[in-house]
Write a structure and sequence with these properties.
The structure holds 3 protein chains of 3 kinds. Chain A is mostly helical. Chain A starts with a helix and ends in a 47-residue tail after the last helix. Chain B has a domain of 169 residues: 3-Layer(aba) Sandwich (Rossmann fold), CATH 3.40.50.300. Chain B is built from 9 helices and 10 strands. In chain B, strands 6-7-8-3-9-10 form a 6-stranded mixed sheet, sandwiched between helices. The longest helix of chain B has 16 residues. The two termini of chain B are 32 Å apart. Chain C is mainly alpha-helical. Chain C has a single domain, classed as ABC transporter involved in vitamin B12 uptake, BtuC (Orthogonal Bundle). Chain C is 75% helix and 3% strand. Classes of the chains: A mainly alpha, B alpha/beta, C mainly alpha. At the B-C interface, loops of B face loops of C.
């Protein structure tokens, strides 16, 4: 029994044709979904429905953007509302002070993104130097600073906030431009998220998440990488803030800088699967309508809050890794049981259940011959026995 | 002196504990040098000091006659000093191949590649696979590092340290907690690499491993060098025996 | 002017002491369990409401009522830990516990809204309105009593930690969980009790807060937790002395600044935190980031 044969892994990804087929299916599915989403407002013209739809899309993009930073780097930020609020106020103040009206206001939205990035730089330079636990709190602290500034400064309108200029559009299709703009931002963000994940940049981010010091020791420029992700995430969130402001026609300190925003976004990402591409999307698609439904059902505000919190807690306790990774594992182990043989697979989202090769640890006797089915266990995240 | 690595008169204290005291260790180019000593004798601290994970209180570290005292870990790595840890450090949620690619960040030389480019170009991946085949875990290339067994992780850590083509590799207990045939495997790989020119400095408790593999052995006790020489000399050195027998219980004592 | 500053400083120190007690509870939880208990803020409010209920409906004196509320909060703390924190495992444990405690906080807030409505209430007693003339200005008795009580409790906590066997177990667990397990310490029990203690102190904090804040409602929890978090970060996560020092320092700073501008005083609070972190990322007394294994 030579060590060499012990080291041979299972016959993974043996059939390239199968992989190609899977990818084709996935791509086709995504396109179909996109087409369906694109025509949605043309079919469901009820303003109430499309309003929820716009909300959903905004959160899909926000969750994806948040994930680009927090999901990949592992630094949980509860201060992204800072960027959202800054974006909202930028468009509001810009429209107010520069007398911008009508569709021209949309031109201010990219500015919203840029302002958010400008804030992200000093924010990140301070916050990213501290440990993860401290980082979360620093983001909360900065969030409160901004909310308080919004309340206290006169150019932000204080407690009355800023109102959006009127938009004289046809009420029945009023929501549509917002819908499509949110959709465009969302698709672009998801695409960016996917690109990053497969890229060198994404690899460095994920290495930072796993073992930042070791990554730094191997030459990864951790501060630069983290800050870059932070800035990208901030830019998109700022854009969304600007869009949202114009959509609901008003921003107040507590609505632009809303603690529930960060919580919701974090929950969506966790629910779907932190650090995956599709996870945050799924999370948002599930949670936004759910939140809406709850608010309708439980006219007692407080009851809906209790239910939301319980839901939140349930997700964290029962699905700690989120739907996508857990689901993907279940599918893989179900497949493994079906074919009666241990399988190793990897889906594009990057989460996998993999087989532990014949154990070479000291305690075992001479290891099993190669190719023997090991336990179909060891999903990502579970602490493997040492 | 053809010393590739030189730690001269290093002193390092942690609070009241003097971990290293006027400690001088030299590693000759092309050698496999062993660093042994009872628990607490300062071996890992010396590693940490050399690779920049700890700052010295006094003394200097020279790599190829260039002073690198207190350089940051990434600088040591860039200068060709690779290092593994006692408790293996890998990136658990990355695949084995991705682990390798993290380390290959800087082999591309001056050519700027877009950060959004696919992680790991052809050349990087090919080299990574070569190394994985060399150490024997190539079959797990697409598996998450988390799923590897203890021994496999050790091999992974060794593999990715080798990506940067280091001139010298510091191994912290490479044979710890690993079964005998895997130990032989690791020893064989070290010999192969050494034959191709890589220098090694190895901390180990497993005496058979050290004595069978190393050209030179340095013995630390209470943070200072008590003996240095070929395995035969060390084996019979009364001060070494004293260091081991006099302090903690050791499973592997030097053969009398 | 000088008189005003003087008064603000005294105010700040006295109130800071009480915040310090609550902050110590929070940082202790972090030190032993690696958990950032976001629910600490709303738990203080819960403590305040409990005192309120006892005082208004059962006419029990606020301080005497503590004999009931402190053990009650302890039990609540242990229950929260056991039900929601202990099951969390794995790599992302700290982030998950943060979110879990945030969820608990939201639930608690909702429950409090439901039971007590969003109306502002305040705790009352003779010593809340009556003041004593001290150092040339009038100081409500409650400030003094609260401060003394907080000091006593911190002392008690100190004695527990440093003079009892159980306290030693707590400190050992703070340093190294695995090693503690190996020498026979029931880490789960230590964790549960520590969480309970950390929450129990909010009963006292809640009572004093309820009496001195000028009115509170369930929403006040946010303001509280953000201050407490800022305090323990500034002091250094896990450092008890740091939490105390930071609490007194920041509350006093805020108190002094509010002479000129009450609105901006609270911003200064957070700005101080950010400033300190820029210079010293691990807080004033925090442990240096561990780079090795």
């Amino acid at each position: 029994m030579t060590p060499a044969s012990m080291m041979k892994g299972p016959d993974s990804l043996a059939r390239p044709g199968r992989l190609q087929a899977a990818t084709a299916w996935r791509a086709g599915g995504a396109l179909a979904l996109l087409a369906a989403i694109a025509v949605f407002p043309l079919i469901f013209t009820n303003a109430l429905v499309t309003t929820i739809a716009v909300d959903t899309l905004i959160f899909v993009a926000a969750a994806a953007a948040w994930n680009i930073f927090s999901g990949y780097s592992g630094y949980i930020s509860l201060g992204h509302a800072v960027f959202f609020g800054c974006g909202a106020y930028t468009v509001g103040i810009g429209a107010r002070d520069w007398q911008v009206n009508g569709t021209a206001v949309f031109a201010l939205i990219p500015l919203a993104g840029l302002v958010a990035v400008a804030v992200a730089v000093p924010f990140g330079l301070v916050a990213l130097r501290v440990r993860r636990h401290t980082f979360v709190v620093v983001t909360i602290a900065v969030f409160f600073i901004f909310q308080l500034m919004a309340f206290n400064f006169s150019f932000t309108g204080g407690t009355t906030g800023v109102a959006a200029p009127f938009l004289v559009w046809n009420p029945s299709t009023y929501n549509d431009p917002f819908y499509y703009l949110a959709l465009a931002i969302g698709v672009a963000t998801i695409g960016l998220s996917w690109l990053i994940r497969g890229s060198r940049f994404g690899l460095q981010l994920r290495a930072i998440r796993d073992d930042e010091d070791r990554a730094r020791g191997l030459g990864v420029r951790t501060m630069r990488v983290k800050l870059a992700a932070f800035m990208i995430s901030a830019f998109v969130t700022g854009l969304l803030g600007g869009l949202w402001f114009y959509f609901i026609t008003q921003v107040l300190p507590q609505s632009g800088f809303d603690p529930a925003f960060d919580l919701s976004v974090a929950l969506m990402a966790f629910l779907g699967g932190l650090g995956t591409v599709s996870g945050p999307v799924l999370g948002a698609l599930v949670l936004v309508p759910a939140q809406q439904y709850l608010t309708e059902q439980f006219t007692n505000d407080y009851l809906s809050q209790i239910v939301l919190g319980t839901l939140f807690l349930g997700v964290i306790l029962l699905l700690p890794r989120g739907v996508i990774p857990t689901g993907s594992e279940k599918i893989t182990s179900w497949r493994a049981r079906r074919t009666g043989q241990a399988a190793a697979g990897q889906d594009a989202a990057g989460q996998a259940a993999a087989v532990i090769g014949p154990d070479a640890a000291a305690s075992g006797p001479a290891a099993a011959p190669p190719g023997e089915p090991g336990a179909a266990a060891g999903p990502a995240g579970k602490e493997s026995a040492r | 002196m053809s010393a590739l690595l030189r730690a001269e008169q290093i002193s390092k204290a942690f609070g009241g504990v003097q971990a290293l005291s006027d400690c001088t260790v030299e590693v000759e180019r092309g050698s496999i040098t062993g660093l042994i000593g009872p628990n607490g004798s300062g071996k890992t601290t010396l590693f940490n000091v050399i690779t920049g994970y700890e700052h010295v209180d006094a003394g200097d570290v020279y790599a190829d006659d260039r002073k690198i005292t207190n350089a940051r870990p990434e600088r040591a790595f860039a200068l060709g000093i690779g290092r593994t840890f006692q408790l293996t450090r890998i990136f658990p949620r990355l695949t084995v191949m991705e682990n390798m690619l993290v380390a290959s960040q800087h082999r591309g030389g001056g050519r700027w590649r877009s950060p959004l480019a696919r992680a790991g170009g052809q050349a990087d991946r090919r080299r990574a696979m070569e190394l994985l085949e060399f150490t024997g875990i190539a079959g797990h290339a697409t598996a998450l590092a988390d799923t590897l067994s203890y021994g496999q992780r050790k091999l992974l850590e060794l593999s990715y340290v080798l990506v940067a083509d280091p001139a010298i590799v510091l191994l912290d207990e490479p044979a710890g907690g690993v079964n005998p045939s895997l130990i032989q495997h690791i020893a064989a790989r070290i010999r192969d690499l050494n034959a191709r020119g890589t220098t090694f400095l190895i901390v180990e408790h497993n005496m058979d491993f050290v004595m069978g593999l190393c050209d030179r052995v340095t013995v630390l006790d209470y943070g200072t060098v008590v003996a240095s020489g070929t395995p035969e000399i060390i084996r019979n050195n009364p001060r070494v025996l004293d260091a081991y027998l006099g302090t903690t219980e050791e499973d592997d004592e030097p053969a009398p | 002017m000088g008189r005003q500053i003087y008064e603000a400083v005294v105010d700040g120190v006295l109130v800071g002491g009480v915040y310090g007690l609550m902050a110590v509870g929070l940082t202790l939880i972090f030190g032993v369990l690696d958990i950032i208990n976001i629910a600490q803020g709303i738990l203080v409010i819960l403590g305040a409401y409990l005192s309120y209920a006892l005082s208004v409906h059962l006419h029990i004196d606020l301080f005497l009522g503590l004999l009931i509320t402190v053990p009650a909060m302890f039990v609540i703390g242990v229950a929260i830990y056991w039900a929601f924190m202990r099951p969390l495992r794995g790599r992302e444990r700290t982030s998950m516990s943060l979110l879990a405690s945030y969820a608990v906080a939201i639930i608690l807030e909702g429950i409090l809204y439901w039971i007590f409505s969003p109306d502002y209430v305040q705790l009352n007693a003779w010593y809340v309105t009556a003041s004593v003339r001290v150092f040339g200005f009038y100081l409500p008795y409650i400030y003094l009593f609260g401060f003394v009580l907080a000091l006593v409790l911190v002392l008690v906590l100190y004695l527990i930690l440093y003079r009892t066997r159980f306290g030693r177990s707590i400190r050992a667990t703070m340093q190294d969980q695995t090693a503690s397990r190996l020498i026979g310490i029931d880490v789960n029990r230590v964790a549960a009790v520590t969480f309970g203690i950390g929450v129990a102190v909010t009963a006292v904090g809640g009572m004093v807060y309820g009496a001195t804040s000028g009115g509170f409602n369930p929403n006040s929890g946010y303001d509280l937790i953000s201050r407490l978090l800022a305090i323990i970060i500034l002091g250094g996560l896990g450092s008890i002395g740091g939490a105390l020092a930071a609490a007194v320092f920041m509350i006093t700073l805020e108190s002094v600044v509010s002479i000129w501008s009450p609105n901006w005083a609270i911003v200064v609070f957070y700005a101080a935190l950010v400033l300190v972190l820029t210079i010293r990322p691990s807080g004033l007394f925090g442990r240096r980031e561990v780079r090795l294994q």
